[in-house]
Amino acid sequence: MIDVDAVLAARLIAAQFPQWAALPVRAVDRQGWDNRTFRVGDELKARFPRAAGYAAQVGKEARWLPILAQHLPVRIPAPRGLGVTGEDYPFAWSVQDWIAGAPVGAERAHDVALAEAVADFLGALRRAPAEGAPLAGAHNFHRGGDLAVYDADARAAIEALRGEIDEVRALAVWEMARASRWSAAPVWVHGDVFAGNLLMADGRLAAVIDFGCLGAGDPACDLVIAWTLFEGEAREAFRLQTELDADCWARARGWALWKAVITLARSRGDVETRRVIGDLLAA
Question: Which architecture, in CATH terms, is 103-282?
Fold first, then answer.
């Protein structure tokens, strides 16, 4: 993994985009895992993949985000420049516009209006033309693909958590998720719909960011936020607004369970992940 700092980021920007060389470069407060992100002045951000496995996301976002933006009800990042390897950095990287807004927090767990807005966004994304879209695969960690890819990981994590969770119920949920497939044409999936990638402004959903896991396939993976963020009436409103069938929701539960059990198996003290597993197994 490569950790880019502000000095290296500024050097790369100055060398490849001299029109922005005088702008201040500073790291954003909330960093993701796949990329290191920096503000460039007030209107731009630069994103640098941390490993080769994330580098393919750069060109994918640059190609597809301007097309998808025409079909979506809220803002998404707009590419402003593509950087190349150089200055001791080995991967392609990107410059995008900076979108102001506050990431969604846990206080929005019962926000019905937000739940419906997220469902509407995902519905618009699914309806966007997907001809030529990159199918689920290694480039997006199989988001939108078959859960079978993660079968061994999920079962191993459930076994490791024996005695800490209801492993019988967990295996039943997992088997139910594996029992069906998306039989329609592939649709666009964001692939990483979690609270930190949803931006609020003036009390409403204003933007969705970080499309590195973008791809086409089964939309079930995009429903995981039903358990990782929403609760009670908001969760039910999200479910109803998506207008997807029970099989899709069973696969969504599988996606959520896989992520939760592998996370908890690594970090036993994760209270929030235990809450998510509890909700998944109680449903």
Answer: Alpha-Beta Complex (3.90)
pLDDT digits over 213-247, tens only? 999 999 999 999 999 999 999 999 999 999 999 99
Q: Which residue has the tokens 């039910």?
A: 236
CATH code that applies to domain 6-99: 3.30.200.20
Q: What is the pTM of this model?
A: 0.95
Question: What residues pair up with 198 in beta bridges, in sequence order?
Answer: 208
pLDDT tens string 240-272: 999 999 999 999 999 999 999 999 999 887 899
Helix-helix angle 246-266:167-178, to 10 degrees: 130
Closest CA to 281 of 153, 162, 168, 155: 168
Residues 6+ apart with CB under 8 A from 236: none
Dmax (CA) of the chain: 59
